[in-house]
Write a structure and sequence with these properties.
CATH class of the largest domain: Alpha Beta
Radius of gyration: 30 Å
CATH topology of the largest domain: TIM Barrel
Strand content: 5-15%
Shape: elongated
Distance between the termini: 78 Å
CATH architecture of the largest domain: Alpha-Beta Barrel
Number of helices: 12
Low-confidence stretches: 14-26, 38-42
Largest sheet: 6 strands, parallel
Number of domains: 3
Length: 321
């Protein structure tokens, strides 16, 4: 039989162990060991506290992707990628900081299940309304006088636009078109002789689109992804014919009406300031009024938090960086 003193000591030791095991630090240690983590016995290290915080807050940064859809009014509307936290990169970059006072969130994009290409042959009038961006469309069918000035403005503002070229214009002005390419802008197809596409035969449609596409490839060594019908005139045959040349039919969300001499630069700017929204495809032409209004038009978009980009970039599902 053990002496009373040893019995008391033994009971005290057992009680101490029970209490110790129930301490939060020990419970955390046991849980971490089960997960094969390495944790100090008497508390979490700074690194582990940061990792736990990142894992806890990451779900709050999740954004669900938006599928492309066919709208009753706007027709084909592209989808928009969602996002989720890239845990490994976020942890690595955060721990690489000297002070580690802020989490360096790194994201990966999640593509939607339904993309624009999945919608079939439908015209496009706008980008996704949740994408804080706009695209400048410049339809070119006459003259070269104002092209250099427009390019100069775009270069100064550090934005890229999409120029839709009439084939007969391109044939006469290949060097002006090559300058557009050298400046980093996108090229689209605007038919050959600026006809009302719905009023010509299917055979003539093929010539109008095909001839210009061939000239674009010959002089500029690029392939257009977008067909902008002259005057916005089209029917289902036009959409189908453009698709045969691997192009979507593109219209516009907002028209500056700069081709009308009665429209002043101030009127153009006022209209854009009032009506531009996320996803806008803005239609312009190379006129003297456009040159005067363009800097303020660009500023109007930026003032609304929109990033200017090409048609292809606007209609992609990629998120704005």
């Amino acid at each position: 039989m053990l002496p009373p003193v040893r019995v008391i000591a033994l009971i005290s030791s057992v009680c101490f162990i029970v209490i110790l095991v129930q301490l939060p630090t020990i419970e955390a240690y046991v849980a971490s060991v089960k997960k094969h983590d390495v944790v100090p016995v008497f508390g979490y290290s700074t690194e582990q506290r940061i990792v736990r915080q990142i894992r806890k807050e990451a779900p709050k940064h999740y954004i669900e992707p938006i599928n492309a859809r066919v709208d009753r009014i706007w027709k084909a509307i592209p989808g928009l990628n969602g996002r989720e936290v890239n845990l490994n990169e976020t942890i690595r970059r955060t721990l690489e900081q000297k002070d580690r006072k802020s989490i360096q969130w790194v994201y990966r994009e999640i593509p939607p299940k339904i993309q624009l290409k999945d919608l079939g042959n439908e015209p496009v009038y706008r980008g996704n309304e949740k994408k804080p961006a706009a695209a400048l469309m410049v339809n070119v069918a006459w003259g070269t006088e104002y092209i250099p000035q427009i390019l100069k403005i775009l270069k100064k503002e550090q934005i890229k636009a999409t120029f839709f070229l009439d084939g007969s214009w391109l044939k006469k002005n290949p060097e002006a078109a090559r300058q557009i390419i050298r400046e980093g802008h996108e090229i689209g197809n605007h038919a050959y002789s600026h006809p009302l596409m719905s009023q010509i035969s299917t055979a003539q449609m093929e010539k109008e689109i095909g001839k210009t596409q061939a000239l674009i490839e010959k002089h500029l060594q690029v392939k257009s992804k977008w067909f902008a019908p002259p005057a916005g005139d089209f029917d289902r045959r036009v959409i189908k014919m453009a698709a045969q040349f691997h192009m979507n039919t593109i219209l516009w969300t907002l028209d500056t009406v700069d081709w009308k001499k009665s429209v002043s630069p101030e009127m153009m700017v006022g209209k854009v300031e009032k009506e531009i929204v996320p996803g806008t495809l803005l239609l312009t032409h190379p006129t003297d009024r456009t040159v005067k209004a363009l800097p303020q038009i660009i500023r109007a978009g930026k003032n609304k938090g929109l990033k200017w980009m090409t048609v292809s970039n606007l209609l992609s599902s990629k998120r704005v960086k």
